[in-house]
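ugh ok fine here u go
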Amino acid sequence: MRIEKLSKIQKNLELITQKWWFFLLFFLLFFIPSYSSKRLDPRESSQLVIDILSNALIYSYPILMPVFKIVPILLIMGIVWLGNKFTRLFNVYVTFTAVLFTFFQTTAITEKYGLAILLGNLAVYLVVAIFWIWETIVKENDFTPEKRPLWKYWVVPLAFLAFWYPINLKTLKPDFNLLYILTSESGMTYCMMTPVYLGILTLYYPKINRATLRVTSFAGLITGLLSVVQFFILHSYTWWMGVLHLPLLFISFYAFLLSLRKEELLKIKM
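structure:
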């Protein structure tokens, strides 16, 4: 009985997340005004975003950064070698990081703005986290190994670039130090880990939670678009940071298109 109830809720979520008004409401969340404990000049809004993201609370313990690189590497290796046995661990880890991104990557204590919060990002990431919490309950994702067309792997190099995060954070210039694969802050960054998570889901599509894929990819797509504007146009000196956000934009767009495809439920489960 419980399984039937969960299945019914899942189907309803898949239907709701296809509605135009759902996308509109979700999109509007991005534009909730940010909060700062000190007076903010509206003309400094874009600089506030950069200051918060650069000083987010999630980076308070840099000693943990390697942990957030090693764990996903082990999870991916487990999925490749053992398939569905690692699905639950993957879901739990993504959910855990989604919650961290929601509350600790959107909040910072800065000298200029005091306590500052990107309330729009917080609201969006919270919705994404809720959908991943739901996935840990219904367990729709299925990582059973199977043959897939070679072209589907185009997401891998882009996801790897985001995970590597080859940038000198002092100069904001390219720095292809291989140590960053294990030491960079990307493992604690929404914009760098979302392409990794979505890339994995696209490889196992359609045997995944379509509602969670849809919400995660839409949030990533809008975040990617806003980041491109931020780093390529508003603050062009950060162009390399813009390049590193292209995996988020491209993979999210691809995943979002996949999530909208009409598939028979029977085919999904086969």
